[in-house]
Amino acid sequence: MSKFSNFPQIAGFYSQLAGVLAGFAFAGLITLIASQLVSGSVADITLRSYRPLIGAFLGLVATSLNYAIVAGEDRDTPRLAELEVTAGLGFCVAALMVLYSILVLLRGVQTDLSGNGQMSGDTADLLRGTLIFGVCPLLVVMMYGTVRDHNIAKYGSADFRGLDIAVAIILLLTFCYMPVMKQNFRKPTSTRGQVDTIAKAGVILALLSLLASTLTISFSTPDETVSDYVPLLCVLILALYNFAVMYSASRYRP
Question: What is the spatial distance between Cα 110 and Cα 117, in angstroms, rounded to a whole number?
Answer without folding.
Answer: 4
